Amino acid sequence: MLPPRAYIFIGLNVVRALSIISLLLVFASSIFVLVNDVQAVNRSMSQPSSDMADCDYIEGSTVPNQPAGVFWAVVNRLLIIFQVVVLILAEVGWPSSFFAKYFPVLGPDFGLGALGIFQCLIGATILSHHVDDFTLVAAFFLFSLGCVNMFLGLFRERVKAKRALLSWREEGKSVLPLYGKGGDVRDLRPQFVRPAEEFVGGFFKGAKADEAEHGEKGLGFGRQGEKKAAQRGFFLNKPVGSLPRYAQQPRSAESSRAGSPEPPTFKSSKTAL
User: Fold this and answer.
1) Position 173 pLDDT exceeds 70
2) Strand partners, 179
3) In Å, how far are 47, 146, 165, 213 from 11, measured between CA atoms?
4) Which of 142, 128, 114, 117 has the alpha carbon at shortest distance from 29?
5) I want to staple 107 with a disulfide (CB 3.0 to 4.6 A). Which of 32, 100, 138, 266 is the partner?
6) Nearest CA to 249 among 260, 264, 238?
7) How far apart are CA 56 and CA 63, in angstroms?
């Protein structure tokens, strides 16, 4: 049986796959509607009729019968296609550095709420016009997935961290797991081995801050460091060297003792029979 976080990982990626499919369907339907509108406008211009003056839309198209209606209809479809392409790249997560810098709401540091809002706006824009069945189904599918992504956006950026395809590989590099109870993303490794933490770098930053504050470089633990510390009132006392009772005294210490009796020596003698 798989752990709970595995089901969460699979479910979130299923939602992502359905979202990409819905965006691809809207991309194809937008191109189809754009071509159909251009053909309808060409037919109406080749066969002028007085009845078109009372129509709100050009027959067989989504182009409004008003000044510059054709222009705005084409611009609308081109903007939808451009937005769909951007959202597909955001769902794939490439390039992440581009989104993190220029579109932060679609980058890895934000949740899925903004993505769901954009999908609902595109779906509502398409559904507000009279379109064919294929475009209608694609737009409704996109609007439904947008509502799901807005709900997942309530969990903020943790959703993207849990559905990342490389999260399992990154977790396998560490000895301790990256997930706590309930599937929450928590790095349980010590601070000095976390790549995101600056535990060790904080000491160097602190040293640089002291250097900038006092205008001096570190002198280390040598003679110069001791002199500088003595000027500030800090002194280092060397500990008195001592040996355990059962340890033998060095020869230099035994020879330096004055008046100490020499230890008796015993020589073995052999008696001849």
Assistant:
1) no
2) 185
3) 54, 16, 13, 53
4) 142
5) 100
6) 260
7) 9
